[in-house]
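Worked example 2:
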Amino acid sequence: MASAMDLRHDLLFASDAALLGLAGAACLLLAILAWQGQVRRQRRRHLDAVGWVPWSSLSLLLFGVGLLALLVAVLGLLKS
């Protein structure tokens, strides 16, 4: 099992493509969470309690950014 020191060392000396890939994966994870927020909003019991966060727009934006970041990261890793 890798220690915290090894993880910090790997992140510190990771390539730009690897860091971009991690950021893209994080965006995709946040997009899934935002999508879950939209599903929860659609199934709400009180129809007047809408909320103020635009979950569907946020989900779509995060998904697009994450997918683009992963694509650029994979292209960068393939070139090196």
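The chain is about 75% helix and 0% strand. The mean pLDDT is 91.
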